[in-house]
Design a protein that fits this description.
Blueprint: E1 4-11, E2 16-23, E3 39-46, E4 49-53, E5 56-60, E6 65-68, E7 75-78, E8 82-89, E9 102-104, H1 107-122, H2 127-146, H3 158-169, H4 176-183, H5 187-198, H6 202-219, H7 224-230, H8 236-247, H9 251-258
């Protein structure tokens, strides 16, 4: 393969950009130090990427997520035989203001990023609604990691209504706006309140419910297609991707093991 390739560099929406980098085994000079006007969220599939910020070095490997705040000058070095992906999350997408770069393990954040990349790469029908929900989920995951909260939030009953609405209606094409309306709240206030109480963004919660339902159906002997449709997934590719990311194996494997 060539020493350097960028299979994907595309706007997912007017608020978010996704990038996919692959480096071969040859020599490659580090990128010049620079700063972005967007938050950068990066993870690697294989290999390592180093971020140098001031006197600090962050070594990003598989299973970790790197967050570089907007406006932070950094230098990026990519090791040979490395494959990495990133999401650039602009301020117009509602990203929380971040001050310090951070490296941590967060499977939920990486999962949302992978789904966002997949939506852009596959170009499935109804992509805009999925991208909108995933973008919101990114914002709340960033908020969780970079904004301290003094105590556990309390639910005044409206979030419980939202959860019940999801449990009752996950087979339909429900949106975050639909759930907020069921809770009797504005979308902006609802999304933050829901994330604070449940620990997940609304879109991620809906996907989790659907995957949980599909797993039960597969275990009961339903076909992959039937389980996907009954669980509220209108597209088999999207279902397989979400299922594998959450359960760790393909739905067809769960079906075979249950036969």
């Amino acid at each position: 393969m060539s020493n350097w390739a960028v299979p994907l560099d595309q706007a997912a929406s007017d608020r978010v950009r996704v990038r996919h980098f692959v480096r071969g085994a040859g020599a490659l000079a580090p990128f010049a130090a620079n700063a972005h006007d967007a938050v950068e969220i990066a993870w690697v599939h294989r290999g390592h990427v180093r971020y140098r910020v001031g006197g600090r070095t962050f070594d990003l490997g598989p299973g970790q997520v790197m967050v570089v705040p907007a406006g932070v000058v950094h230098l990026t070095e990519i090791d040979p035989a490395t494959e990495a992906r990133s999401v650039w999350f602009g301020p117009e997408a509602g990203a929380v203001p971040l001050e310090d770069p951070a490296l941590f393990a967060d499977e939920d954040l990486a999962w949302v990023g992978r789904l966002l990349h997949a939506e852009v790469e596959t170009g499935l029908a109804d992509r805009d609604r999925a991208v909108d929900g995933l973008t919101e989920a990114l914002g709340f995951h960033l908020d969780q990691h970079h904004r301290a909260r003094p105590g556990a939030p309390r639910d005044d009953g409206r979030i419980a209504r939202a959860v019940q609405f999801i449990e009752d209606g996950y087979t339909e094409a429900i949106t975050v706006a639909d759930i907020a309306k069921a809770a009797g709240m504005s979308r902006a206030h609802f999304s933050r309140a829901f994330r604070a109480v449940t620990g997940r963004a609304p879109y991620v919660y809906v996907q989790d419910v659907r995957v949980r339902r599909a797993r039960g159906l597969l275990g009961a002997g339903h076909s992959v297609t039937d389980a996907a449709m009954r669980a509220g997934f209108a597209d088999l590719s999207r279902f397989s991707r979400a299922f594998r990311d959450r359960v760790g194996v393909a739905p067809s494997r769960v079906r075979r093991l249950s036969a």
